[in-house]
Amino acid sequence: MGWEELRMTHLTRNFGHKFMAGLHPHGPNPFVEARKRRHGHHHHATGGSGAATTPSGSSSSDSIDVTDSAVTYLMDVTIGGQDFSLLIDTGSSNTWCGANTKFKPNSSVESTRESVNVSYGSGSFSGTEYTGPVVLGGSSGLSIPNQSFGVASTAQGFSDTDGILGIGPVDLTQGTVSGTSEVPTVTDNLANNGTISTESIGISYNPTTGENIANGELTFGGVDQSKTTSDVTYVDITSTSPASNYWGIDQTITYGSSGTTILDSTAGIVDTGTTLLLIATDAFQAYQKATKATLDQTTGLLKLSSSEFSNLQSLFFQIGDTSFEFTANAQIWPRSMNSVLGGDDDSIYLIVSDLGNDSGSGLDFINGFGWLQRYYSVFDTTNTRVGIATTPNTDAETN
User: Where does the secretion signal sit in this chain (predicted)?
Assistant: First the structure.
């Protein structure tokens, strides 16, 4: 699976009705469109210290609250003085707007006259690349005076958001803008401008309890230690392609106290733009067998009876030297939010789903939004590594 194929399939794994549409026979059916609007934002500064929990060299950071839309997170971003709500995506790297709220150029921005085209599977956009002021977190947030961004003239599959805040590796922008080898990301520019001393992002997500709740936080340039309950376990970006082109790591997944193997040590990615926890088809089949779950035809998700749920055991993710427990409660979709996926109010659905290819492809899992809500994650460009720590949500019984 190459870079372009990954880019083409990526967005089918994330937001609202784009989520997993038509990916494979065992993938969830399109979700009901998630309402996206967030009401207000908060920007505040945090300090970070301590070698175990802060990326090396980080002495300053800025944190921005973000909104849980029930299937992904959105950030308020002001571009050229105009406000947009953008999907936060570590699995792509172009930042762009205009899908829903149309961009109105003014004297603060300048067109590069270069075309931009990015396809995401069931979604895509094309338009023109601009440069100008971008402020993360809204008009009083974290400012980037001269950021390159796309303005959509056409966009398909984005009725629920104004565009994407791409915070993946910069290499993913290659070939997307004419006349340009690659486009610096917002984190590249924050570091280059000296706004942050380490090019890293710490992400705190919380389990979903409703739509449009500002319960997440992105910290640019450091780690918000108030969100963690353990040291951060850092691992280098995997050397296995194509996962190595993304925020890719190696991990092993086992089930229960007996240590039943679900997925042997292999490469995959950590991705805010994917809603579920996706694993290779053979691993998914092993998980379904271990849990005794059945495939629900309405949602495309695995479903458990109450008695089966009472017997559901934890998954364990071996990442570096640390085993991270993913509890039974963490494995189920929030029952209060079943209507978002078109499910029955009283049913119990699992968030572990089929990636659509057998293991050995070089990208055998995607630890998505539902997984990230139970941990603190760090995406560290300076040191080419990913970090994971436990939080109070790791063993919460919120679902």
Answer: none
- The first and second tokens of residue 331, run together, are 């494995």
> Is residue 87 a contact partner of residue 165, using CB atoms and an 8 Å limit?
yes
Q: Is the pTM of this model over 0.85?
A: yes
Domain that residue 244 falls in: 229-390
Measured CA to CA, the distance from residue 380 to residue 57 in angstroms comes to: 11
**Are the C-beta atoms of 6 and 241 separated by less than 8 Å?**
no
Q: What is the CATH number of the domain that holds 381?
A: 2.40.70.10
- Report the sign of the C-alpha dihedral through residues 253, 227, 196, 152, in that order: positive
Could you give the CA distance from residue 157 to residue 161 in angstroms, rounded to a whole number? 9
| Nearest CA among 139, 163, 138 for reference residue 38 | 138
Q: Distance between CA atoms of 152 and 64, rounded to whole angstroms?
A: 25
37-96 pLDDT per residue, tens: 222 223 333 333 233 333 333 346 799 999 999 999 999 999 999 999 999 999 999 999
Give the SS3 label for residue 60: coil
Q: How many domains does the chain have?
A: 2
Residues labelled as active-site residues: 89, 271
Residues 19 and 143 in one domain: yes
Residue where one domain finishes, among candidates 220, 246, 261: 220
Report the C-alpha gap between 45 and 367 in whole angstroms. 28
Rg (CA), the chain: 20
